[in-house]
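In this section we walk through a basic example: taking a raw amino acid sequence and producing a predicted 3D structure, encoded as discrete structure tokens. The instruction is simple. Fold the sequence below.
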Amino acid sequence: MREPLGYNEEVGECYDRHLTELAVKAPRGRARCLPCEYDASAYGPHASSYRPASPYGPEPHESNEDLRLASGDGEYCRPHSRGRRRARRRGRFRRLLRRPTGLGRPVAMCPPGARGFVQCQLDLEDVCSRSVLEVGSCDPNAAVRSIIMPLRPARYTGADLVPGPGVDVVCSAECLLDRFAPGSFDLVVSTEVLEHVRDWRRVVHNLKTVLREHAMLIVTTRSPGFEFHGFPLDFWRFEPEDISEIFGDLVIETIERDPLDPPGVFFRARRPAGFTERDLDGYSLYSVVRRRRARSLTRFDVAGAHCLAAGQAVVARLLPLRARHAIRQAANRCSSQARRRGGRDSRRRS
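The resulting token sequence is shown next.
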């Protein structure tokens, strides 16, 4: 192999003509290419700085001259980057499967309609010098917190399943009573949470129990017809009639549909004096997994929700928006036809 022109110990660089020319040609941040017959001992201890900086190998340069170096005998040799490119593609696909939307970090944004409803339902008298709990508070935009904090609450607590922006206490909605005593808050706000919990009866019981007497509860959720959205999973849909039945033991002051991002339902209620909780064991809700009303979900339904979330994440990353809309419309047509066919069969049997 051709000997280098020289090596400077102070600068730590090798003054070889071919290496310095390549260092000038290669764009900043891209990996340096090396000949196949590379002798590190000839270039000193700092010669490793000329090795490829990326574990996936060099990126494409502007010309073939940038992709190769002249070896000692005058022949050109191409860097071995094909295997690195394959590893990079495999790594991207593995990261795609490892971090789907439905199985990753459950961060769900508060929709504009829900944020507007919370803002319209609260004033200074409802919040000032009172204790506030937000269930499902992980939101980088701090949509609900930015509304309540200017009203000067005495204590504001954000609870969510995972740590993140706006989360003060890491606690799932099913375990609220494990962290907070009954009757601990004057105001409880829960936006876009009820449709994501498997045991909705337990969550409803917890929301009612942590309220003090005459305390206020504000809840927003989704209705049938809203698409599956796994943050982290998605199970239920609520109609206004369901809200009136489930929270009928509270004094419901306002109930309305989402005007901006339908279908959805919002309501505000208060816990009355002498509160007696209603029994909801026999009540059925519409399940977005089963596409019909159900009293509860099995582990197979939960596995199906996981599969739906993972498939939705992969499709969202691989297919363009127009193709996803076409697939969604076809799936909705198939499900509606299946429901109509099932209704006709049931009427025939009756």
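Looking at the output, two observations stand out. The radius of gyration is 30 Å. The chain has two domains: 7-98, 112-297. In the next section we compare this with other chains.
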